Amino acid sequence: MSIDWASLALVTAVTVLGTAFIMVICSWAARMLDEVHIKRSNHEVKGLHAAELSAGVLLFLAGLIVLYGLWLIIPYFH
Fold first, then answer.
1. Looking at the 3D structure of the chain, how many domains does it have?
2. Which residues of 13-27 are buried (b: 16+ CB within 10 A; e: fewer)?
3. Which member of 1, 6, 73, 78 has the lowest number of beta carbons within 10 Å of its beta carbon?
4. Cβ-proximal residues to 59 (8 Å cutoff; 6+ apart), any chain
């Protein structure tokens, strides 16, 4: 029995980079929503809708990535 170390390293790299990418997307969306909250509390209205829409798109993208990962893991869906 032998271990394919290159494949193991590839799986590790994709997992770490994929997780970091999802965390960056979610953090960026949370930052946008926090700025929207701050602007609303200061009664500023410029750019609120665009920031909310962008944050929603980023969270939707993160959700799609997670669902794709689940689709890859669960053999019932193939």
1. 1
2. eeeeeeeeebeebbe
3. 1
4. 25, 26, 29
